[in-house]
């Protein structure tokens, strides 16, 4: 549907001309990807072939194709109108900026690595010119959401407004089978995109991938497609969970590289731990800065009883018993630490939990037989943890299943997926229960919740103990995946996850109190440093920058619930109803006030 919102200011070109130029620019950028971008294969990806895009050219090709489709949808062409149920013009701008970003980055990388722009072939210039034309022309398209003319706005506000779009109208209900197919297709596309990112073989390609995915996803969100899919997933929650698990189950079958499968296994481990922390921070509102210690308790407890030849305990429990041992140990520590400290609030509680995390690390480092009892081998840790063997299935060797070869990392990935499913189930059921609603009440206003008869201390202790237990479960698998556990793995902050800062950033980035938010946040925060090794030394600095930008532009997180969106963004609704306002106009405003 063509958007006819009048643009602010005096346009330099007419709207039809802007739309024509945007479409032509996107088509030009797309054509340029089929031409050579450089003359030598020294730049990774081999961009020297004409007629066959490769490496970063593929990302420009996909971005240009998306821009072209969104631009054509603005003409109201039958069969393409479904692409833009929300905004018609802001998605085009965002997609065009993404193409320009990917193309410009590629040209810059070629120039830096090969020694100047003389190493560029005509194809790179064609795509760059097309991207520039598309971006410049898209700025002449009308805004999808007008500014309030009663307020004076600076140029930045006006530009940001051109990237906003209204929410799409409610779509006509489809048959259940059709909606389920759409959900399955969406998760299939998500699996392909995620797999492509993990399979990137060099840093330049991964940076281009991040640029393309960020702008492409935002463009689709402004177009209203993400909102439409979100409505379907909300309507069919059980189907959505099943589709997500199936997509996750299929991931190791797409991997031929053991290193990439290991990245997937570690992402699941840390995402599961972040989801456990989300119980404490997101639901109950307890700031825990030493949460990684519970992961360490579970890992050490499992390592001690899993048959390591260097374990001072010298016993080997079955895996199910080792899992229960790790979970029980973390539960006990959670109760012991939480009981005397959860009467504190805010910063005081955060300081105490930070102290617990450091005490745990220093204690296991001292239990070396010299400074204390010989229980953890001190800084040497507990190495040589044997691989699991469940029902005759050896996790340490490769297996051929239905024509696919699953290596050691893929085996542990599938095992961790089972634990993740259990944690997701626990989080979902607890969040929707009376206890979960009581946690939210405590998070919003503990004094008011106590006045309403909620036993705040008991419920906070329950949240603390549950979060610790979930972390302990993940720690039992982590001990076997990494072969060894050492004190330095469990710090408050460090260049290598897991650490408490990493886990807390994952929860905040993804969206506190949501089910999928911590999973998304942990995946991003682990995948990006894993693929960009040069970022390891600057991880904390970049985390800080990311959190500052997040607090400025999306304080509710990447995946936010309705409550957070109403809390952090203006909705045009009154927090306190006007005296003469009818009840039908103030219902949503009452919800925003936290009722």
TrEMBL record:
Name of protein: Branched-chain amino acid ABC transporter permease
Transmembrane stretches, start-end: 21-39, 59-80, 92-112, 124-142, 174-194, 206-226, 238-254, 260-284, 291-311, 317-336, 348-367, 410-427, 461-481, 501-526, 538-554
Membrane topology category: Multi-pass membrane protein
UniProt cross-references to CDD domains, sorted A to Z: TM_PBP1_LivM_like
Principal subcellular localization: membrane
Subcellular location: Cell membrane
A GO cellular component annotation in the UniProt record: plasma membrane
Key words, A-Z: Cell membrane, Membrane, Transmembrane, Transmembrane helix
Claim: Electron transport is one of the keywords in the record: no
InterPro entries: ABC_transp_permease (IPR001851), LivM-like (IPR043428)
Pfam families xref list: BPD_transp_2 (PF02653)
GO molecular function: branched-chain amino acid transmembrane transporter activity
């Amino acid at each position: 549907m063509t958007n006819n919102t009048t643009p602010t200011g005096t346009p330099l070109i007419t709207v039809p001309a802007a739309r024509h130029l945007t479409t032509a620019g996107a088509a030009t950028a797309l054509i340029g990807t089929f031409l050579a971008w450089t003359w030598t294969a020294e730049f990774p990806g081999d961009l020297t072939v004409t007629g066959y895009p490769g490496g970063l050219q593929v990302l420009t090709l996909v971005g240009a194709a998306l821009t072209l489709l969104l631009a054509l949808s603005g003409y109201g062409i039958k069969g393409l109108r479904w692409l833009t149920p929300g905004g018609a013009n802001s998605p085009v701008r965002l997609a065009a900026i993404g193409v320009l970003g990917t193309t410009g980055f590629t040209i810059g990388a070629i120039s830096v690595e090969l020694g100047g722009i003389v190493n560029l072939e005509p194809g790179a210039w064609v795509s760059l010119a097309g991207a520039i034309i598309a971006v410049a022309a898209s700025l002449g398209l009308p805004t999808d959401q007008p500014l309030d003319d009663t307020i004076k706005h600076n140029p930045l506000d006006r530009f940001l407004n051109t990237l906003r779009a209204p929410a799409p109208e409610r779509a006509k209900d489809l048959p259940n089978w059709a909606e389920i197919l759409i959900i399955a297709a969406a998760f299939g596309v998500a699996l392909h995109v995620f797999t492509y990112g993990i399979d990137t073989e060099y840093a330049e390609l991964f940076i281009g991938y991040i640029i393309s995915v960020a702008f492409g996803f935002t463009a689709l969100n402004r177009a209203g497609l993400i909102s439409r899919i979100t409505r379907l997933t909300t309507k069919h929650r059980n189907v959505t969970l099943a589709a997500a698990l199936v997509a996750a189950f299929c991931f190791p079958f797409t991997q031929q590289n053991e290193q990439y499968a290991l990245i997937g296994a570690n992402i699941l481990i840390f995402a599961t731990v972040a989801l456990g922390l989300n119980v404490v921070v997101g639901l109950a509102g307890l700031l825990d800065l030493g949460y990684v210690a519970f992961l360490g308790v579970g890992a050490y407890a499992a390592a001690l009883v899993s048959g390591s030849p260097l374990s001072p305990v010298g016993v080997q429990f079955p895996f199910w018993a080792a899992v229960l041992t790790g979970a029980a140990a973390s539960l006990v520590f959670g109760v012991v630490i939480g009981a005397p400290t959860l009467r504190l609030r805010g910063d005081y509680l955060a300081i105490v939990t930070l102290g617990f995390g450091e005490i745990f690390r220093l204690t296991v480092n001292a239990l070396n037989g010299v400074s204390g009892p010989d229980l953890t081998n001190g800084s040497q840790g507990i190495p040589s943890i044997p691989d699991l063997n469940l029902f005759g299935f050896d996790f340490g060797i490769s297996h051929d299943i239905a024509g696919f070869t699953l290596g050691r990392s893929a085996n542990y990935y599938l095992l961790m997926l089972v634990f993740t499913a259990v944690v997701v189930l626990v989080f979902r059921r607890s969040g929707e229960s009376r206890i979960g609603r009581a946690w939210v009440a405590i998070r919003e206003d503990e004094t008011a919740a106590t006045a309403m008869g909620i036993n705040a201390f008991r419920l906070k202790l329950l949240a603390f103990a549950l979060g610790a237990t979930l972390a302990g479960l993940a720690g039992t698998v982590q001990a076997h995946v990494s072969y060894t556990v050492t004190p330095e793995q469990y710090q408050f902050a460090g260049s290598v996850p897991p650490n408490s800062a990493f886990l807390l950033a994952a929860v905040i980035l993804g969206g506190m109190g949501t089910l999928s938010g911590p999973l998304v946040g942990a995946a991003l925060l682990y995948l990006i440093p894993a693929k960009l090794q040069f970022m390891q030394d600057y991880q904390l600095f970049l985390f800080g920058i990311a959190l500052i930008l997040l607090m400025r532009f999306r304080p509710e997180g990447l995946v936010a619930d309705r409550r957070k969106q109403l809390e952090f963004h203006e909705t045009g609704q009154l927090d306190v109803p006007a005296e003469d306002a009818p009840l039908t106009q103030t219902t949503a405003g009452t919800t925003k006030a936290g009722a």
